[in-house]
Fold these 4 entries.
Entry 1:
Amino acid sequence: MDTDQGNGARTRAEDASCARHPRQIGRCLRTTGLALTAMAFLLGGAIPTVAQSYRFSEFEVQGNTRIETASILSTLGVSPGESVTAAELNDGFQRLQRSGLFQNVEIVPQGGTLIVIVDEFPTVSQIAIEGNRRLSDEDLLTIVQSQPRRVYDPAQAERDAVAITEAYTQAGRLAATVQPKIIRRSDNRVDLVFEVAEGEVSEVERLSFVGNRAFSDRRLRRVLETTQAGLFRRLIGSDTFIADRIALDVRLLNDFYLSRGYADMEVLSVVPELVPSRDAYFLTFTIREGQQLRFGNIGVSATVPGIDLSEYRSEVQIDPGDLFNPQSLERTIQRLELLATRQGRTFIRVTPQIERNPRDLTLDVNFVIERGERVFVERIDIEGNSTTLDRVIRREFNTVEGDPFNPREIRAAAERIRALGYFSQAEVTTREGTTPEQVIVDVDVEEQPTGSLGLGANYSAEAGVGVALSFAETNFLGRGQTFNFTIDTGSESSNSQVLFVEPYFLNRDLALSFSVFYSESSRDSLSFDTRTAGFRTGLTFPAGEYSRLGFTYTYVNNKLTRRDDDEPLSPILEADAGEAVTSAAGYTYTYDTIGRGLDPTRGVRFRFAQEFAGVGGDEEFIKTTFLAAGQRRVRNDEIVLNATFEGGAITTLDDGASRQSTRFFNNQNIIRGFESGGIGPRDLNFDEDGAALGGNYFVAARLEAQFPLGFLPDEYGISGAAFLDAGSVWGLDDKMTTGPIPIDDDFFLNSAVGVGINWDTLIGPLRFNFTRAINKQSFDEEQNFDLTIQTRF
């Protein structure tokens, strides 16, 4: 047989085979393509015009049940009667394959008819997730992009599996695997199931530091957001490794060192090492501390004529010898620029010029007052806030449209927006406006939940076992308002309160508050019950950088009831039985730098308040209270020292007598080591231990040191405390009694020493106090042990 004839016979045979077995069209097209390519090669490309072409007058589509025939032919791109080459036919074949609608596509030329055979992807009937315990179906299904009643796409299912795996990675389970599977149903439907093997949590097994000399590993661990897993991790809890949190940890370390004078500190590297079992990490921070620097000479100069430098020097609150702190510089610059604004000077910029003195490790700072560029704020654009109103964000800016542009003020506004707690992310950037002399401030925020519903349990030796229900919303209706509702019940008392706060009343930095409260007390140690109901409203506004002044009005209905008519009651308490209304106006001044001042290692808190009763009601008195407290961190912040001194006095008017509901009673917030009402005036003629009467005056001093327990790893969350409390409750307007034992209301200084254990557990913070009275009267009631626990679910 002639060679050409043999080849032709084989080609005709293969064409016939393709017609008999249409599912082999892919091989058929490939065979045709190879034959044409070989022919072109043998003939040297001399006959490209004789490439095989087809002309179809009819089309037959097989296998489609949901996809319309016209839609398939449109995607194929072949028209009846038109000549089409094998390459063009292959292009149409590829388009059908890439459409994502078919598992398999075959095209079979058969004379003047083109047969298109499709195998449609099934429809997803339902989507399920199996094997997940740590992450809920609701959370994971929000990640899945495949949807019921849509065409099943294997590629999309694989992408969904990767997304679920990534969610487990973020939760610290790097060993988690996700496998998408389908279950065939009738009518070309499938159930899509993601089978999850969660694996174990990848914890931070060891968190260590290299290069730290000034601060121990224990102290630096408390700085980081990441924590180290402990030996009793199942009970105490541990932290998972999250790679995205490393950047935050680096920033926290930098801020910690900078605020303590280490201006040259650097985090050289952070190395996470995954153990072979993939369930734990060794995380190592390599740092270079540098040297601790202090401020040297502080000066103020100006390049702007007409400035009285003495006024500006008085605004500088940095003293030579203070630890270098970038916040000190920033706040001083703000004060100087604010003074310039108050003097009517615009576009004033203050630039700190810093000169290092290597010999004595100080930094000389000269604040230069100079004229800045004339740039104005064209507008402020806010995006990303779907719930929070624009005005809630805009009021954090001291700058409005048309004001001179101050970059430092814009950065400060960004920090205030982040401090609101309403947003998971808040970015404030600037860009050029419609002219070079104008800028546009862009605020891009990402909202986060601001409400919480809590169910809790608590216990204390004083109040017994109790439960608590609370609802709190700090961004009520997106207006930046606070709404709280709490119910707290114990075995001997119950309290409930509704609180509403509008932080920007009348569009000013003026906080308007209103609360309604109700409480009942029925203590076994007392022979009477009390009930209190009332409301309080107030206005608070800033009086300085760290101080606030508030005015309040309070209306309270108090009731004291004898528990048993046959049980004797002190005449002083008998006189207080029944209902009485207290209507009082007052004010409170507070100054607080603890955790907020320029020096993070120390701070003070001062509070002074007075309440004037007699604006209506049944009582007339002046009630004065004060508190002075200080905090200091020593030994490289390892030990926290707290000192508190407070007191109060009630001055009755018109020769009246104070009531039980108004007088001061001891509790654990005054001095520890004694029961509630365990010190102070007592009528020993009544009750087994004498009736606690309270007093018109009290003073208390509390000294406490909190320190780590060196024999326990810091990650357990257990620390120790030692304290000394001293105080007194004394003074009555009337000491009448019907018994033989006189009432002693003289000043007597009670005191007690104790140790405490603080344990931060998964179920909540625990505080154990062990105390012993060192100075007491014979009738005082001690409390040598106190346990307080509170947990919310």
Entry 2:
Amino acid sequence: MAHGRPGLTGALAAAALPLGFLAVFFLWPVVAIVRLGLGPGVGAVLSSSDTWSLVGFTLGQAAAATAVAVAAGLPVAFLLARTSLWGNGFVRAAVMVPFVLPTVVVGLAFRSLFGDGGPLAIILANAFFNVAVVARTVSALWSHVDRRAEDAARSLGASRWRTFLFVTLPVLRPAISSSAAVVFLFCATSFGVVLLLGGGEYATLETEIYLRTVQLFDLTGAAALSLLQLASVVAVLVIGAVLRRRSTALRLRGRADTARRPVGGEWGVVAAAYAVVVALMVPIASLVAKSFESGLDGYRAIGGTGFRGSLQVTGWEAVLNSLRAATDATMLALVLGVLSCVALVTLGRTRARPSLIETIDTALMLPLGVSAVTVGFGYLITLDALPGDLRTSPLLVPLAQALVVTPLVIRTLLPVLRSVDTRLRQAAATLGAQPWRVWREVDVPLSARSFVAATAFAYAVALGEFGATSFLARPESATLPVVIGRLVARPGELNNQLAYASCTLLMLVTVAIVVAVDRLRVGTVGEF
């Protein structure tokens, strides 16, 4: 404890850069939107029946998609937590693939199944994204639930179904509720899926903010809608935090129960889990098939600019733009994320107040709770005040993407660093190692696999980011997701073929990243 004060000072210094970045590139734009949204026109927007119809559809489709995701995720959670079957590794990777797929890929995949889309397509596409959130979060808790209470209920004559309802489900309810809150948040702020599947007839607050800004130039109206969205997001975050605290307060076994082969009626649950996995593969297979519907014409067109020069960049130039932006965003997110983790872990090892640690941790997670579209809109109305007007800088897209993926880096690395045995660090310090060397010799090797996983997932998410990038990318520096969105909105069969071929390539890169990370056996979903 002799190094408590220097450790506290160093931790706060490490947190200064991430918190400063958050203040400039998140808090400032959001506050500007709040101020603009409280302008003279806010009353007319908030009293409009069209506005409340948007709110109703936004919340309704989010609630329906959450119900579907929970129903589909629970059998998969049982399979991963309680069984030891060949192929569980494939299931684990398969449910993760939709979670990190770019929204434009999923939107086009469901268009290939449902034609012009509609409410059902939107609900199923949002549920498709979020099955992994439920499956991984609930399975993480389920694997630590003591079986003895279930065995006692069975020995007293309770059926498997009654045992689940009255013994297992109450224990799992906090994890189910917490994951449902996160899924609802993701679905309520869904952008690319609704934009591609709404067909101009169905819109949410998220897409309406985008349309009012880009097409109607109604900044006051867009800001007023952003206020409504922020209010709903804050409410969901508060509910999720309460449920998460209840989940962590449960008394569980210190280690996971040994998985075994299913018995009796459990095989029905296993069958349902495999049915969910097959259902998740259907949109992906449909997308690939659609991309080859006209042979290789779509893939050949990647070297051009679409039907009658619809784009200002070729497909390959868009690919390079995506790779450059994702690389820059990932490098920045790793710097910010690692510094944040070092700060939080160091604070936990000193005499810092738990409230200080929780406040910093919550602040760093705030970008998860505000849509990328809202942040991108905020950049347009604030960043001209900085030297050089960042709104026209090619750095703006990587900055926005880094804001989105930094929480992912933190949530992947932080649990591993917090679990490092303090005895190893004390032994190194006893042998004369300075604090920086203790980190290098103890913490870094033990967290190396998680660091690789964080890098890969951050890169995959940045590569497919569409919400903020659609606001900020200039036509000559458009990324591949932005190009796909523009191709879909423009006429011409060649544009359609090019969009599906580009989506397939983007999907293959994402799948390769997920499979590689799964081989490291490092999870990300479930730590949020």
Entry 3:
Amino acid sequence: MVASGLFLASLIALALGKPTARNLKLHESRPSAPNGFSLVGSADSNRTLKLRLALAESNFSELERKLYDVSTPKSANYGKHLSKAEVQQLVAPGQDSIDAVNSWLKENDITAKTISSTGEWISFEVPVSKANDLFDADFSVFKHDDTGVEAIRTLSYSIPAELQGHLDLVHPTVTFPNPYSHLPVFQSPVKKTAEIQNFTAGAIPSSCSSTITPACLQAIYNIPTTAATESSNQLGVTGFIDQYANKKDLKTFLKKYRTDISSSTTFTLQTLDGGSNSQTGSKAGVEANLDIQYTVGVATGVPTTFISVGDDFQDGDLEGFLDVINALLDEDAPPSVLTTSYGQDESTISRALAVKLCNAYAQLGARGVSILFASGDGGVSGSQSASCSKFVPTFPSGCPYMTSVGATQGVNPETAADFSSGGFSNYWGVPDYQSDAVSTYLSALGKTNSGKYNASGRGFPDVSTQGVSFEVVVDGSVEAVDGTSCASPTFASIISLVNDKLVAAGKSPLGFLNPFLYSDGVAALNDITSGSNPGCNTNGFPAKKGWDPVTGLGTPDFKKLLTAVGL
């Protein structure tokens, strides 16, 4: 009787197509949907899902070691960045991983295609019913209460035991859409446009206390007005969610604020995922115009590319974040600096997916690219101000392989902008390069905010610049804009100008910045010691002497940066 029962159970399992005979292991899960999402019900079993598999990188630990080796000033290999081929060799999946995954795909009659040059990412389509069976999942429909955004997701999934160590993640599964589309920028009440003033070196125009223009940034941070000379030194600006950079507005901006250079100075357009760049005035994006006007208008003479990412994402809920990095990794000569003014709360993205994207930044950093992101505009409550009981870190600011930029305001002295997102990651620990800085801050902080943040997490932001009342031309009119998205392109412009001097001197561009910033670069940064970033019904973190999770190490001084890099 017992034997017959077992035989019957096996027949039932086969009939249902369930992989019960396989040894499935829980791979990722979350206790509930992110705040703001509600369960609608089970997904239609016949609905087609486009899934992506991320295979394990063959030797990421060695890539990380080499990243720090070429990025640390005291290293004998400082500045000896890796080639495209060298990076690809370290991260391409091993043959054992490829064989294991391909065998599993064949066994389940799945045809997949490779969607990255190294073979790390592959994609395939299956109905919901089969996805549930393959991954012991429960794909359901979830809806965001405020925006109405719907998505089919599962709160957990498993993978065959034999794929552990070979398969990093299945996507999209436990990562939910970002309903607010990354955007960390907001507009201030329109203020009187600042008049351009002549000023002597080191003198800051009085107008800069109320509005920021390129002249203000040049004066505050000792930024030169002379043009860069090295065409190989490129600056990349990313654009998402149909934000278009308008050339006519840029021309108006340069005529008004950079009368010393040609108003015909412009940018190069690069597109992917079906991206475009409409020049219809009414479609000009505040974010896109801000980013382009304050890179072209501050990084004088540096060739600037606007990378417009469309809506045909290959990376799902990442909305092009991974696509743009993969595209740049495929280039033989990617830009030396990449600035992005978009982001989201760390909790909205699964840890495995966040790590995969962060590792892609490490690959680009090893190639000699400085990657900068705005830290967000919600203080300690995340990328945008929100209700919370515990502090909300932002992504990708918690990633240790990029540079997070916070915001300041005011002159003589600068102080922290109260919206400047900062804090400590829940996904990554404190990297070695900032361990002393974080430890010193936490000792000074004491028990303030105890239990509301991860005291062992990677701290952010790393640096900051002005971020309040930037004059931006949008569809012919001047608007005042606030946000850390003002700060990231500003800092990126300064680094691009430093790189120009380095390349002209026969040296390498700075590449991954943080090991330099937390060592030799500290002397070139203005320490910000006042202000805080409130949120979650608290005053947030206070700015203090040295590094702090509001303004980072401080704001840049171009002349001192040149000294710090040996020029």
Entry 4:
Amino acid sequence: MGVSVASLGFPRIGLRRELKTALESYWSGRSELDALLSTASTLRRVNWTSQKEHGADIVPSNDFSLYDHVLDISAMLGAVPEAYGWKGGTVDPVTYFAMARGSQGCCAHGVTAGEMTKWFDTNYHYLVPDLTADQTFRLSTTKVVDEYREAKALGFQTRPVLLGPVTYLLLAKIRGDQEVSPLGLLERVLPVYQQVLEQLVAEGADWVQFDEPGLALDLDDAARAAFRTAYATLTAAVPSIKIMLTPYFGALDDNLDTALSLPVHGLHLDLVRAPEQLADVLGKVRPELLLSLGVVDGRNVWRADLSRLLNGLEPIFRARGNLVLAPSCSLLHVPIDLARETDLDPEIGQWLAFAVQKIAELRTLATALEQGRDAVRDVLEASDRAASLRRSSPRIHDLAVQTRLMAVTPEQSCRNAPFARRRDEQQAWLDLPLFPTTTIGSFPQTPEIRAARAANARGELPEADYTAFLREQTSKAVRWQEEVGLDALVHGEFERNDMVQYFGEQLSGFVFTKHAWVQSYGSRYVRPPIIFGDVSRPHPMTVEWWRYAQSLTERPMKGMLTGPVTILNWSFVRDDQPRAATCRQIALAIRDEVQDLEAAGAAMIQIDEAALREGLPLRRRDWKTYLDWAVESFRLTASGVADRTQIHTHMCYSEFNDIIVAIAAMDADVISIETARSKMELLDAFVQDAYPAEIGPGVYDIHSPRVPTVEEMVALLRAARERLEDRQIWVNPDCGLKTRKWPEVEPAIANMVEAARLLRAEAAA
């Protein structure tokens, strides 16, 4: 009998974002590959050491990635699209990073990056496997075995982690033939997985963790059969290694019998997202199957209520004896160490736990189960005290916010007139050309801007000087936009640190960290706000910067806001009330800002809902509830304006066919979306449902350093014209340009404006 503590995966980025620094140095040519690989090796060693020191018995290897763990599997399988010029053998770093980021140079033939989308319902992005119906697979990297061997040499017996073969294929696309299921390639994929397992056994591995979050999805009989085939094949072929099957992000539900039937040795349960599934599992599970209980939240930052968890765990431990305690999922989605947040409000800080604290919480639970609660009495009392103080803190609840929310009427979520009438009024007022050009909002945050912000934060640059500097940057950006020929301008957002943090810092109910970074994709990290209490807007947030920017030009200047659903989904959200209630509170705060912008003279107001799709529940039965309150929240922000005020929104990578009815129900006048990587394929959903409003399909992939040519953009716009009416089409990049550099942005936007000019000439011919 015994209890083990397992980590399912750990943040890759480093306490001081060492991976970001090393990647960007390598990409820019300032350092060699050896320096990047050395940093990566150091981070892995630090991670293994830290997890062990904080109480993990089982630590993972191969949870580290230079860019993305799904891309790592594509590289392992040799699933490299022909365009990247790979000739076989080992997938080299040039090819790997070309798949991730695209390439302007000759080595990878100047190709675009692979399609990227959200990892289930998180804010992490993965590279979509790009396969063909006749795809062949062969072992093409040794990363899994290399990192296991590396850990073993340092004294760590790790449990290697691989994304399972079925989930990998469920995430894949078959290029050129959407009727062919990627699951049909399973028999070709399994021999490579088998080869990896055999190599791990040869190196001394005794367990392997197969992540199969696909088991939390709605699956058909073919997908369930694929799971049975996959694990029957692998366990029969390599019987000497034990498999921990690791679904997460939701309940197994109607996939439970499939999961329990698989010939694996352990099963993980996400009991944070789906605590209700435990009873069903305990009633059906075979005695010899090792259960891994995900009882600590791997996706949020709140401290666990340890006594409450023990109340549920103790009878299970008495009945089964052997247990593994783990986070609900990989800790990739939370910051690394709360101890670094020395400036955090201490009252709120005591309510939080980051990755290393979560492992320590699991160690406390394991000790209490094995030795009794008295063995960790002080820790349990501290946990009880923190939970009680959080429940009773007067900083959590604001009666004025709650009263206002209760008074909201359905009329407050409706525009005055239908879109067709609004469009006529807006065109008469704005007088825009066919295929109007604009950008999504932000311009490059240069080293000079970041340095000035840091100096201001340290008190070294006076506020007046900092404001003058930002005004100068804004003025330059406005002049450049006029010179390049954009039709609808933005002020560039130089005063903003982040599209969510900037607003959260000015809203009540939020708290912020200094070092709590998490990975969004590649070297793109974010510091999500923490929503701990009721939300309201004490004062206007953007009006003065919009007013200044508009004073510099006669062209329309968009007011730029982040929408309530995105603020919610890109924050660590309080877990003591429904997410819908928190979202509506944010919506009322943003509604106040929209009305103040309109009163100041804004003719266009963009309310970004980049994260609407990623909040969609994994099970279809739950979609309507989420979409109803998400759409209502957006409409609540946007519906208090006059008909002639044009409301824009923006959405990031999404499977729009899943939510097209909800997008239409948002009743925005213009939506901009990311379509460059999908070659306008995502527009098909808007065509099938006859989307009535205007659309800006992205023609410039801002996640890649490539500068697309005029011809590429014209080709994309022609593809858009095949799907949409000319009057519907706007011309814009995929997303904001904050992370790019001006030498990339200037020619790319100039090419975009020229592409729009050529399209106007074609339309007039």
